Fold:
Amino acid sequence: MHPAYLETRFRSEVPLGVLPSQFVILSAYATTGEVWSEERNSLADQKLFIVLQATLPAFLKRVVGYSPTTHHAEPSWAVAIPLADAHRIGKDFAQDALYFVDHGALWVASCRATVAPIYVDQFERRLDPCCS
Structure:
C-alpha cells in the first residue's frame, strides 16, 4: 500500500452529521504513480458517477481527497454501497485503492490485491470543510 494513502485528508461541503455510518470513497482519477490528462481524468470521473448512480445508493456526494504534503487533490465520491461492490468498481476503474468509513473509522483497502484493509484514522479527524 502506497504510504501517501495513510496521510490523505478529505474536503467536503457535507456536514459530518449527514454522512451515513458506512460508506466508501471512490475516485476514477489517475492511479497512483500514473499521470493522465485532465480530459481523461474528467471523463473517468463522469463515467464513475454514472456507474455509482446506477447502483441507486441512498447517499452519493462529492468529496475531495488531498495530500497535505504534496497538495495533490483528487475529486472522489462518497457513496453508500457495499464494500464488495466498491472493490469491483474500483478495479474496473483501474484504481489502486479505495477508502471506506465504518462507524467513524477510516480504512484504506486495495482494489487490486486481497490484503487486509489498513486502519488510517477516525474520519472526522481527516475531514476538512471546503467552500464553493
In short: The chain has one domain: 3-129. Residues 38-54 form the longest helix (17 residues).
